[in-house]
TrEMBL record:
The lineage of its organism: Eukaryota, Viridiplantae, Streptophyta, Embryophyta, Bryophyta. It comes from Sphagnum jensenii. The chain crosses the membrane at residues 12-36, 48-73, 85-103, 109-131, 143-160, 166-190, 202-221, 236-256, 263-284, 290-309. Residues 325-352 are annotated as: Disordered. This is Sugar phosphate transporter domain-containing protein. Keywords: Membrane, Transmembrane, Transmembrane helix.
């Protein structure tokens, strides 16, 4: 009995350790990509203020790698994607994703890393509001009160921002809204049809769409400027490492959500935001005011309550499933055993 308990505890500790390892890798890569993008785009650092070009480099790199992983190395099986499904589902999601990346990367030119992370705290508000409007989520007065608290906290943080730039704020808020619409559209256009995409298959289908959509504003906005300056010359080491970090982040998201849950990533995101705020203040020397911190603390508490409520809802849903399964076992024990046996045979056939 003692040995069995020890083995069980060891398995639990190992699972916890592996989960924390995935969290740590995701935080590191997300942290790296954000700071790296800020370094490239900021006028006081690398001074390459071309967010569309940077995003196109990312999408081109990810398209290239994803193609080789899917078609050459066959690490991931391509979906049975019809032309109609691609045009009706993948193309709109690609358009929204390209716009979201364009706006969010543009914001780094005008705003500090710390303030951008504070504005990103509005993501649950945007996702929930969009879900209610699209009738994917039911309206709940308690949840809405929580959303209002988050919004008030971000507003306080914005009021205390020492380097406030209205255009930069509008860019970041636009990125938040577009990203929220994209996430809801994924549920409507893909998830509801039983289609799930991991990061590699997502990049395989979506990244080329993003590249094409971004090329349209790029030809009008940035291409003439790049041709008129020496900035058209690409530093392959700087942009190659930046693109590699962005691709690795997508894989880390897959591992984190696949091995833990999306809720774990949300909680880890809160930790990452505080680390970025501290880094922005201590290393990049961005000014963080007490009002900034007070406002973000209010938003942070709201986000924590939101994640807690989601966790309780998931636990209740899981408990309900277990109770339904137990009721079936008690009412139809023989039939349920036969179904399990058939499933086991099917799995063995797949293995063979």
């Amino acid at each position: 009995m003692g040995r069995g308990q020890t083995a069980s505890n060891a398995a639990v500790y190992k699972k916890i350790l592996v989960s924390y390892s995935y969290v740590a890798v995701w935080i590191f890569l997300s942290f790296t990509v954000i700071v790296y993008n800020k370094y490239i785009l900021d006028g006081k650092m690398y001074n390459w203020p071309f967010p569309i070009s940077l995003t196109m480099i990312h999408m081109g790199f990810c398209s290239f790698i994803a193609f080789f992983l899917v078609r050459v190395f066959k690490l991931v099986e391509p979906l049975n994607m019809t032309r109609e499904l691609f045009i009706s589902s993948v193309v709109p999601i690609g358009a929204l994703y390209s716009l979201s990346l364009w706006l969010s990367n543009s914001a780094y030119i005008y705003l500090s890393v710390s303030f951008i992370q504070m504005l990103k705290a509005l993501m649950p508000v945007a996702v929930y509001s969009t879900g209610v409007i699209a009738k994917k989520d039911a309206f709940n007065s308690k949840t809405m009160t929580n959303m209002v608290a988050i919004s008030v906290g971000v507003a306080i943080a914005a009021y205390g921002e020492a380097r406030f730039n209205l255009f930069g704020v509008m860019l970041q808020l636009g990125a938040v809204v577009v990203e929220a619409i994209r996430l809801v559209m994924i549920q409507i256009l893909l998830t509801s049809k039983g289609i799930t995409l991991n990061p590699i298959s997502t990049l395989y289908y979506v990244a080329p769409c993003c590249f094409v959509f971004l090329s349209i504003p790029w030809m009008v906005v940035e291409y003439p400027v790049l041709m008129a300056t020496s900035s058209f010359k690409v530093d392959f080491f700087v942009f190659g490492m930046n693109s590699l970090a962005a691709f690795a982040l997508n894989l880390a998201v897959f591992l984190l959500v696949g091995k833990t849950s999306a809720l774990t990533m949300n909680v880890a995101g809160v930790v990452k935001d505080w680390l970025l705020i501290a880094f922005s203040w201590s290393v990049i020397m961005d000014r963080v005011t007490p009002i900034n911190l007070m406002g973000y603390a209010v938003a942070f508490i709201g986000v924590c309550f939101y994640n807690h409520a989601k966790l309780q809802a998931l636990k209740a849903k899981e408990l309900q499933k277990q109770q339904q399964s137990t009721a079936v076992d008690e009412e139809f024990p023989g039939e349920h055993w036969n179904v399990q046996a058939d499933d086991a045979v099917g799995e063995k056939s797949k293995d063979a």
